[in-house]
Amino acid sequence: MAEIPAPTPAPLPARARARGLRRWFEPARIGQMSRGGSIVVYGLLVLWSAFVLFPFYWLAITSLKLPVDVFDGPSFLPWVDFTPNLHAWADLLDFSAKSPLAETLTPYRNSVIIAFCSTALCVLIGAMAAYALARIEYKPRLGNILVFVVLMVVTAVAVGVYGVDLWIAAAVGGALFVLLARSVGRYFKRSVGNADILFWMISQRILPPVVAVVPIYMMFQKVGMLDTHLAIILTYTVVNLPIVVWLMHDFFASIPIDLEESAQLDGASRLMTFFEIVVPLARAGLAATTLLVLILSWNEYLVALFLSTTQAQTLPILVAGMNGGEKGILWWTMAVVIIIMIIPVIAMALLLQRFISKGILLGAVKG
Amino acid sequence: MSEAGTMADDGAAIGGGRAHSRARRLSIEGLNKWFGSNHVVKDLSISVEPSEFLVLLGPSGCGKTTALRIIAGLEQADSGQVLLGDTDVTNELPKYRDIAMVFQSYALYPHKTVAENIGFPLKVRGLKPDERAEAVRDAAAQVHMEELLERYPRQLSGGQRQRVALARAIVRRPSAFLMDEPLSNLDAKLRGYMRAELKHMQHELGVTTVYVTHDQVEAMTLAHRVAIMDEGALQQIGTPREVYDNPANLFVAGFMGSPPMNFIRGSIENGRFESGGGVGVPLEGEGVGGGTAAVMGFRPEDAEVADPGTGLFDTTVYAAELTGDVTLVTVALGGDTSLAIKMPKEYDVDFDRNVAVRFPLERGFLFDAASGERLSARFAVPPGAA
Ligand SMILES: Nc1ncnc2c1ncn2[C@@H]1O[C@H](COP(=O)(O)OP(=O)(O)O)[C@@H](O)[C@H]1O
Ligand SMILES: [Mg+2]
User: Fold this and answer.
1) Is A104 exposed, middle or buried (0-12, 13-18, 19+ CB in 10 A)?
2) Considering only Cβ atoms within 10 Å of each terminal Cβ, which end of chain B, N or C, has fewer?
3) Looking at beta carbons, which residues of chain A come within 8 Å of B162?
4) Residue B153 belongs to what domain range?
């Protein structure tokens, strides 16, 4: 009996290889980049790097130019277009009052003190606030917040317009709040949650700083703290707090809560849990946030312009003020100052970079 | 099988661990917990004797973890008390309770080495590094981890992480241990091994232990006593043997055993249990008046498959599977009832064969279908039947 072959579907041919130009955009092997792809990618990267790095190059060569080289129009290549000269850098070692760099010393110290103190303060407070918002459920009643705001306005009006004594007004306002909070809370049950608090914090940054800076100036003027380190440190801390809270909140929320509960059962207090368990696990986020806040404070201009005159002047103010004076603009000195101004931030970035590594939570939970 | 051997010892083993001066009674009384409108723990009262190994058993989502977390102090009960020894710790912070817990996830600190992990409870208590090192070594030796003290958790296997978590719990000699499904992340072989280790260690240390699991085999093998929970309420508490041989209600009967007890739905009519499919058995005892819906139950290992006409009822074979030590025969009764029967592994039968099912009537159970409670009525054993 003749066998009837089972009907088999014709096998589909394997997909044909790409040809011509398309081949350039296919990797030769798994896990490799295609030739065309790498040319495009690296080409773009080189272009972008040149674009980003050129200002640094320009700074560096300007710091090596004599005044005559600067004013002779643009020249780009040392030893070709001009002869490099260290005269601007030599000023760094000249501490006599005549030296154009002598006056940078104080602002430099101010900048270091202000930026590092305010960053430390800001990250410490902000991280703790972010942790609290990530782990503790807050439910302040909307009614109570309203009462608080209304009483505050009333107190301010009483003090400002009617000349009531500040302490008496504050005491009465506080007492009224305690009384009203209990009764109003009973009728307005609506409350806000952690997400609302978090949003309220970041909303503080929506206001353009230039709007807030005049009241801040007046406030410090009133208490006689203008041109002090403390005033600028406090302002920077407050201004940068929302950023720290916002960024750190997510880092803390991503740490398995089991670890903290385990630490609690092991006998640790909340603070100890925070510093022994939570902070080390969030250090990548802490490092990145610290760096960001440091850069923001280091380069801040507007607030420093208002709050400092001589004693607490910071580097950005100094550099901005360098384009005047009877000698004209000392481009070479300015280049040197800007270069030494960048160094601490780069050093911090390199220092913190090794913390910004992944996979730290590996092995925390599960097998 | 070794499991049967350990089960037999259980009754005598309560409190039989080595004298542990700090072992204390752990009791919870009238515990209630709501999550919103979800009543998760319902009036739970359990007393764990000093050095006892109590297993809290129940299906997933029945509130075991919540109950354990209340004991640990990680969750606040809406009402009820937690007592450790004679002390009321209901409102005590977790860190003051002297209770150690092993989490299902192990919760090892990933940035600390094994030694630092185990030593953390001691560091918190302000012990000096050299005292700590000694205690850590002792605890690590107890779980056979001395060699790996300098590793980080990510460099350990699942079983090793489990051991570190255990060592961290025992290093400070707590008054009580809590364990939340500690073996559920391990593969089957390791789980069997760690089960024996755990049991041995608990016996050695004599620490009062509450162990949560949804696995009834773990419960049977580990426990001095098992507390079975369903939907937040305690169903029965007793030695594994008691709850297995004498289930208090349908839930317990259906939860214990693998495969679980067979059930046949029917009703009590004129002193007889009657069900569709030709099942009819005379009853004796109280409450055999009639009209109530009831459920008959019997264990797969008590029953056997016989020739048609010689058993309680006739049916056909649905499937037969050799599981290794037994042949598991499934028969269908009526539309939606299937029964499992364990036969010797030599037994072989064709599918769809007509067979009878029989079991010694004194091994049968009778439950109220509506409430699920065990009925005091029993099947009348015909005189002369063995
Ligand atoms: N934090 C919580 N918030 C709301 N519901 C919860 C919370 N924790 C547990 N539940 C609910 O409580 C019930 C019991 O949970 P759980 O105690 O984890 O059960 P089990 O450990 O027995 O599986 C589940 O229905 C679960 O959804
Ligand atoms: Mg659970």
Assistant:
1) buried
2) C
3) 367
4) 2-251
Instruction: For residue B362, give the CATH number of its domain.
Output: 2.40.50.140
Q: Residue B136 falls within a domain, yes or no?
A: yes
**Same domain as B299, residue B151:** no
| Burial (CB count within 10 angstroms: exposed 0-12, middle 13-18, buried 19+), residue A188 | middle
Q: Which ligand is nearest to the CA of B104?
A: 2
Is residue B263 located within the same domain as residue B195?
A: no
Backbone phi and psi for residue B234, each to the nearest 5 degrees, phi listed first: -70, 130
B120, A263: Cβ pair inside 8 Å? yes
ipTM of the complex: 0.82
Cross-chain CB nearest to B185 (options A272, A280, A367): A367
Report the gap between the CA of B151 and the closest CA in chain A (Å): 11
Instruction: Say if residue A132 is in the same domain as residue A144.
Output: no
On whether both B9 and B156 belong to a single domain, the answer is yes
User: What is the C-alpha to C-alpha distance for residues A152 and B244, in angstroms, rounded to an integer?
Assistant: 68
Of the pLDDT bands very low, low, confident and very high (cuts 50, 70, 90), residue A161 is: confident
Sheet holding B304-306, edge to edge: B304-306, B354-358, B313-322, B326-333, B337-344
In which band, very low, low, confident or very high, does the pLDDT at B219 lie, cut at 50, 70 and 90? Answer: very high
pLDDT tier for residue B274 given thresholds of 50, 70 and 90: confident
Helical pair B158-170 and B114-124, crossing angle rounded to 10 deg = 20
Q: Which of A300, A312, A294 is nearest to A348 (CA)?
A: A294
> Relative to the CA of B59, which ligand 1 atom is closest?
22
Q: Quick one: B234 and B213 in the same domain?
A: yes
Q: How many domains does chain B have?
A: 2
Residue span of the structural domain in which A293 resides: 100-137+207-324+346-360
Identify whether residues A133 and A115 lie together within a single domain.
yes
Residues A76 and A160 in one domain: no
Evaluate: CB of B61 within 6 angstroms of ligand 1: yes
pLDDT in tens, A272-306: 999 999 999 988 889 999 999 999 999 999 999 99
Token pair 């950023």: residue: A243
pLDDT digits (tens, 9 = 90+) for B26-37: 999 999 999 999
Please, what's the b/e burial string for B345-374 (b: 16 or more CB within 10 A of its CB; e: otherwise)? eebeeeeeeebbbbbebeebbbbbbeebeb
Same domain for A314 and A235: yes
